[in-house]
Amino acid sequence: MEIDPGHHFGADLTNQTQQVRETALEPSGEDPFPERFQNKPRVPTPAPTSRDLTRPSPTPPIRSQHLQAVSDAKGGTDAMAGRMDVARLAALLHETTAADASRIAAAERELSAAADHAGYAGALLQCIGAANAPEAHAAAVAIPAAAALHNFVRNRWPNRLPSQQERESTRMAILQALVVAPQGPIVKLLAESFRIIVTEDVTRAKCWPDLLPALCQAMQESNLMVGKEQSPVKTANALVAVHTLLKPYKYFQNPGSEKEAAPPELEAIVKALLEPLLGMLGILATGTLTAAAAENGDPTAAAAQHNAANQPGNDALLHTLLKCFHHTVAAYMPAAMVPSLQRWLEVLTKILEQAPTFRFEDERVHAPRGKAVKRVIQAMQSLVTRHRRHVDKFLPAVCTHAAALASALASRRLSSGGDSPTPAVQSRQCALCFDLLARVSETAPGYKLLAPNFGRLLESAVYPALCAGAEDEADWEEDEEEYLQKNLPADSDDPTGFNEELYAPRQSAANLLGLLAERGSAGVSSGGGGNDGGKRKKGGGGAAKAKGKKGVSSTPGDVALRYFERFQPPGAPGAPNDPAAQSSYFGVLVAYGALSKWMANHGGKASTSTLARQRILPVLAPGAVDSSTIAGCAVRAAACWALGELSNTGALPEEPTHAALLAQLVDPVGKTQPALRSAAASAIAASLHASCWPKNWEPLLTAAAAAVNDATSEEEENDASSLRALRLITVAAEVAPEHCGAANLANPLAAALARAASSRTPAPPATLPPVVETALEALIAVAQAAEETAEEDEEENDMDDDAASGGGGPPHPSLVSLVPHLCAALRRAWLPTAWGFDAWNRGGQTDMEGEPTGAPVACCMGDCSRLLSRALRWCPDAASGDQVQLAQLVAAHASLLPEWDAWEEEEEEAALEVLDDVSASFKRGALVVRDVNAMRPLFESYGQFIGTAIDQAPALGCARACRRSHALMALAANVGGDASAGVARKILGAATDRLRGLVSPDLPVARPLVLAASGALARGVGPAPGSLSPNVASDWASGVARTLVTSKDDLSASELIVLASSSLRALGAAGAGAAEAVADASARASAAESALRAVLGLRDLRASGGELGAGRRNAEEEDTDDSDDDSDDDSDDGSDDSEDFERDSDVDSDSDQEGSSPPVDEETEAQFLARYAAEARKLAGADDVDPDSGDVEDADDGSELELDGVMMGPPGSEARALLNWLQSRATAADLGALAATLQAHPVDGLSNGVSNLQTVLSSIPQAAGAGAGGGNGSGGPSASSGSAGVSMDFGGLAL
Question: What pTM did the predictor assign?
Answer without folding.
Answer: 0.79
